[in-house]
Amino acid sequence: MPKITFISADDQQYQVEAANGQTAMDAALDNMVPGIDGDCGGVAACGTCHVYADDQWLAKIGSATPGIEQDMLALTDNATACSRLACQITLGDEHDGLILRMPAAQH
Amino acid sequence: MRPTCIIIGASHAAAQLAPSLRQEGWEGDIIVIGDEAYVPYHRPPLSKAYLLGEKSADELLIRPQEIYSKHNIVFRLGTRVSAINRAEKTLTLHDGERLSYDKLAICTGARVRKVALPGSELQGVHYLRNIQDVDAIRQHTGEHKRAVIVGGGYIGLETAAVLKKLGMQVTVLEMAPRVLARVTAPEMSAFFQRVHRAEGVIIRTDAVVSGFAGEDRVTAVLCADGSRLPADLVVIGIGVIPNTELAADAGLAVANGITVDELARTSDPDIVAAGDCTSHPSKLYGRIRLESVPNASEQAKTAAATICGKNKPYDALPWFWSDQYDLKLQMAGLNQGYDQVVIRGDRDHSRSFAAFYLKNGQLIAADCVNRPQEFMLSKRLIASATTVDAAKLADDRLELKSFLTT
């Protein structure tokens, strides 16, 4: 049961408890974290669960996967090498303490 | 006394509206009334992962029941509203019970359009809109069994793809000369017909269904040209009708959907509406009614803000998606009134290309097949009403990012 923290662009923190095997997007939606929309339900079709991980965490969760996730992020506003789609991050115990920052807007 | 907000309907719009009310600071009661047995669930996977058996009903839930309880959001499930009494600000439920509201949100969605043909009540003839429908459809699936899909729209084609994957013999009957006729250009229709045929699905266009044969259970679909197609399962997907009757009976303005403004307000200041059941103003496309999850969610956020006295106008760009086989189709904008279609990629031989719809040289919509970058680009170009160079768009070697700087 990893505890993860979402931080909004204006530095509001939302700590949530996720279930093992759950995606970071689902953990955010379950806990009503504002700023993660997840309009498509987690099939990487909309790009509205864009988050940033710092280098240290990125090493653990991995960079955006080649294919649809990288393609979606390629033309997303404000995407960087640290960008991920939260729906493509599956959580486990090793992610306890994970910090994901959110962009100012998802659209 | 604490004020009460009641939400009629318990699907995508309600699933967003109720939590958004809390996020916007609503401290009163929130009651969500739904006629199904479930708290809100994702509907798009019904014709995809759920029909395929890859997801359970629990996995479809947008969020678990406990989360709503934690935020003091109360559900009244298996319950229908029979009337809105605006003068006294109450609702009458189907069993006669009355509930008082201070603010009301109508999120009644849409229901399937049904056929009135001989035999349409037979077992094995189904529509596809909710969990119950798919559970019933799955009673009739199985390898080598025969499925006939009536309607070559997105629901019909997605269902055909899944049933084929389940090993069934699948035929799609479309009344128009091509599939997806109402929503895409002929180039896209031809592409989807090619792929479905390559996957082994039979597609018959210009096919008019006249009825269904069988004793208790359907055994065949009858066509107007006299042909008879054996069938173990029939799935009808011929569109939806917005659920506007409650609103209309209460005297609210209704014209192809409950009429709302950019703040999701109906003609009654204490009643908002969101989702498939509404028509709203769009700067790009005029007044539109959308059948779409993103529309339901985004409009619901606006509606929640409005209830809390805030001003968050809704004018998002419409977008849609569909999954069939290995095709990920993402659509941006609405193509009504297009005068030019530009194809980027190999439509005739590959499964990866984009169709751009232009009107007076301006990009108004795009259908992207396994082309997420083109989709993301299109959303931005359409929203900013950009004039584009058709020859450049068609040039698959040209970097997409170059369109954003010009």
Automatic annotation (TrEMBL), chain A:
Where the record annotates domain 2Fe-2S ferredoxin-type, the positions are 2-106
Which cofactor names does the annotation list? Answer: [2Fe-2S] cluster
The entry lists its GO molecular-function terms as: 2 iron, 2 sulfur cluster binding; electron transfer activity; metal ion binding
Q: Which UniProt keywords apply?
A: 2Fe-2S, Iron, Iron-sulfur, Metal-binding
InterPro entries attached here?
A: 2Fe-2S_ferredoxin-like_sf, 2Fe-2S_ferredoxin-type, Adrenodoxin-like, Beta-grasp_dom_sf
Q: Is the Metal-binding keyword given for this protein?
A: yes
Task: Say if the entry is tagged with keyword Iron-sulfur.
Answer: yes
- GO BP term (any one): P450-containing electron transport chain
Record-linked Pfam families: Fer2 (PF00111)
Coiled-coil regions, chain positions: none
Q: Which SUPFAM superfamilies match?
A: 2Fe-2S ferredoxin-like
Protein family per UniProt: Belongs to the adrenodoxin/putidaredoxin family.
Protein name, as recorded = Ferredoxin, 2Fe-2S
UniProt source species: Pseudomonas borbori
TrEMBL record, chain B:
| Gene3D superfamilies membership | 3.30.390.30, FAD/NAD(P)-binding domain
**Keyword set, alphabetical order:** Dioxygenase, FAD, Flavoprotein, Oxidoreductase
Q: Does the keyword Zinc apply?
A: no
Which Gene Ontology MF annotations are present? dioxygenase activity; oxidoreductase activity, acting on NAD(P)H
Q: Which SUPFAM superfamilies does the annotation name?
A: FAD/NAD(P)-binding domain, FAD/NAD-linked reductases, dimerisation (C-terminal) domain
One GO cellular component this record assigns the protein to is: cytoplasm
Q: What is the name attached to this protein's record?
A: 3-phenylpropionate/trans-cinnamate dioxygenase ferredoxin reductase subunit
